[in-house]
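Hey, quick one: can you model this chain's 3D structure?
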Amino acid sequence: MRALVIGRFQPFHNGHLAVVREIAGDTGTDEVLIGIAAAADDHTLDNPFTAEERNEMVIRALEEAGVHP
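Sure thing. Here's the predicted structure for all 69 residues.
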């Protein structure tokens, strides 16, 4: 079974990582897809990171946590 986690990840933090780990640890889950929600603007107070920066942030956090991205 596939699972989908969607978020803005502004920034990706330990709470997000915990959700991904919990879902990935479910015995019925073969794959976790992570959807990075669009932000109309970037480099603002509410949306400090671009989509590319958030994508890289998620990949690095998963790698550092030993979760295969």
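One thing worth noting: The mean pLDDT is 93.
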